[in-house]
Amino acid sequence: MHADTKQYDVQPLKQKVTTTFRDRIKDIRDPEDIMSIANWIYDDTPDGDAAIREEISMYVQGNLSAIMATFRSRGALMNNSGPLEDLLNRFAVTVD
């Protein structure tokens, strides 16, 4: 059987994934939960699909102060900021 060479419109799929991301995080304030969901979508995203990865990165950057505040309140930034550094590195977020 030959592979189907028909070109499918991937935009609805992209929209569904980004909408799913927004819907799943809209009421979540725990950075670890946000990381889990972001990682799940990020890992499910094909390498070439920069749009969805950008969506996630923009969300993380937009909520960076709240994310950092939560980690600070847990003392995570005092001696070992590993989880936060992993999060920032994962989504290519730089903090000046």
Protein model, in words:
- This protein is mostly helical and 96 residues long.
- It has a domain at 13-18 and 32-90.
- It is built from five helices and no strands.
- The protein is globular.
Can you lay out the helices and strands and say which pair or pack?
Blueprint: H1 11-25, H2 31-44, H3 50-62, H4 64-73, H5 82-90
- Estimated radius of gyration: 16 Å
Largest sheet: none
* SS-based class: mainly alpha
Please give the count of helices.
5
Mean pLDDT: 62
Q: What is the helical fraction, as a range of percent?
A: 55-70%
Task: Flag low-confidence runs.
Answer: 1-6
Task: Compute the separation of the termini in Å.
Answer: 55 Å
Encode the helix/strand succession as letters. HHHHH
Please report the total strand number as a whole number.
Answer: 0
- Our estimate of the beta-strand percent is under 5%
Q: Choose one word for the global shape.
A: globular
Record keyword descriptors for this entry.
96 residues, 5 helices, mainly alpha, single chain, disordered N terminus
